Amino acid sequence: MADNADIATELMELRLEGALASRLQVTAPVHATECEECGDEIPAARSEAAPWATTCIECQGMREQHARHRR
């Protein structure tokens, strides 16, 4: 017979599994074709290497440089 702790553990596991499953569906790669910063085309090599990329290499470099300076 299950006690309250066992029931609570099972419920939390089910909720966690559901949350993880829904999160995995949301984070599917986007494959952007244009840079969201400058509007230029994202090169095919960058799209293949980083399918989640939404910026071209130059704009991503500027983002990273700005982030380093903000620290």
UniProtKB/TrEMBL annotation:
| PROSITE patterns reported for this sequence | ZF_DKSA_1 (PS01102), ZF_DKSA_2 (PS51128)
Identification of the protein by name: Transcriptional regulator, TraR/DksA family
Q: Does the keyword NAD apply?
A: no
dksA C4-type zinc finger segments:
35-59
* GO MF entry, a single one: zinc ion binding
User: Per its UniProt entry, which superkingdom is the organism in?
Assistant: Bacteria
Q: Which keywords does the record carry?
A: Metal-binding, Zinc, Zinc-finger
Coiled-coil ranges per UniProt: none
Query: Which biological processes are named by the entry's GO terms?
Result: positive regulation of secondary metabolite biosynthetic process
Q: Which residues form the Zinc finger DksA/TraR C4-type domain?
A: 35-64
